[in-house]
Hints:
The protein has helices spanning 14-19, 26-37, 40-51, 60-76, 153-158, 172-179, 226-236, 288-306, 325-332, 335-339, 354-357, 398-413, 428-433, 461-480, 483-513, 518-535, 549-571; strands at 2-4, 7-9, 79-80, 90-97, 102-112, 120-121, 141-147, 165-168, 187-190, 220-223, 242-252, 255-263, 268-278, 314-321, 341-347, 360-364, 418-420, 438-444. The chain is α/β, with parallel strands linked by helices. The protein has a nine-stranded mixed beta sheet, sandwiched between helices. Strands 6-5-11-7-8-9-10 form a seven-stranded mixed beta sheet, with helices on both faces. α6 links the parallel β8 and β9. The two termini are 24 Å apart.
Amino acid sequence: MIQRFGLIICGLSLFSLIYGQEGGSSAEKYLDLVGQQFDAQKAYETTHFVSEQWRLPGNHGFDTSIYYVQQILQEAGFVPKDEAQTGQPHYRLERYPLRRPTWEPVDAKLSIAGVAKPILDFATNRNMIAINSFSTPAEGQTAEVIFVESCSPDAIKKAKVKGKIVAGKCSVYQLFRTAVLKEGAIGVLAHRIPKYNQPEKYPHSIPFQSIGFNSKAQAWGLNLSLAAWRALEKAKEQGRVEVNVQINTKIYPSEELTLVAEIPGNKRESERFVFSAHVQEPGANDNASGVGTLAEMARAAMQLYKAGSISPKRTITFLWGDEILSTRRYIQQDSLRAKGIKWGLSLDMVGEDTEKTGGSFLIEKMPDPSAIWTRGNDKHTEWGASPVSKDDLNPHYFNDFMESVCRLQARKENWVVNTNPFEGGSDHQPFLNAKIPGLLFWHFTDVFYHTDADRIDKVSPKTLHNVGVSAMASALVLCEGGEKVAMELHRLLQTAAEKRLNTERELSVTALRAGSKKAQEEDINKTWVKWYLDSTPTIRDVLFGAPSNRLKKNIKQAHKRLLKIQRETLSSF
């Protein structure tokens, strides 16, 4: 038996407390509906197709991926927006000019003079060419390699690298900027791989990196695996090292594509739940998996819509484009539309076979107090924390609601669900910047993150299914809205609040025993209470009119309860 400030949980599951002992929650209903329609194999096939494309905005791989998803939408029954009747599900393909030419890799080889087999070959190392590199002559460029001990400007200048190829253990961007643009080297060989990629275990992996686009220099950079770097070092032991570099890339004017599909709400069409999956980046999990999952979510939702199984009262929007930019533009380009965006969810690295990648499925929460004081079971990933202050907090039920739906799916499918405090860096960021509740579904730490080992064999159809079903069901619950959903959100939020406040109290008691200052522990607990005090009224945003007297009463009682918990907590310090 666990006692939480008078709330006794004995013989009842968390879910029966949240949704009532009679069961039959809105989330459970939609998880079942979507689960029956969502085809994991279709999501996997789309992920596979997209993963084979090397994707940057405007290049062939990016555009081909967009057109592939567009065909899925057409076959599902979405019609072009300019042909759609009022209330009919539709899509539109938006085109935007690129500020500079797009780039795509074709082929490359790096060979040590006198050694027949290349130490790097694009056929097996598709991240070896630094983004924005220009082609070499067809026969390649052969030159002496100058190894620099440091990538500082002084060290590179001292090495006298003009007309040479420079090798260094730093980012290719940094090395290129100094060695080529300032000191006249013809190209660079850079080796820098994050520890979480475990290069000792995976010595042939290469993270993709870029150099600054420079049409005047028309030079290049290569990213080296640990195995390739060691091969160069071994050659260096024999004396002077000379290499031949062959690079073939395409650089050409283009345009940026963004694909948007919508199932219009039949009651509040201007209010919407927005999903975003970015297309660029060359990996399978990052982010072909997001593209494939969202495409199948749209297809499944359309089939349910045509069958009359769903009839959302608010609009559901699906967006595919360039990471952060497309989502930010969608929010900013139409101020009236932006006012109606009530929730945003980014799907990024959502298909992982966790036994292979090591990356747990995570819900990255919108900034809450755990992003300020990260302790207990809350942990940041190796991606790293972003600074968060109290001013960044926008209290809302969205964190707890989305987690609860995923945990319902996890209970059904034996799926592991975790959360992490806010870190940023994906398509949830533009929502949050606009003060719109926004979350990220992702996986980390993935040892193959951003490397050319992020291929389709690291993707799990089962994970695609669990993520897609949970995400789509969540949107359907909120877009249905109404009194029943508001009451469910209220029960969920109060249960989550008591659980969290009990945890924070226990952590503070332990911290005080270890010498923490009472003022800080009081601040932490007060901030959490305020989070839930301010989150509770936000459940009204699913309503279509004034709250009922019952809901008003429940909100009022919740406020009294939370303040009582705060008094009990502070008196215990």
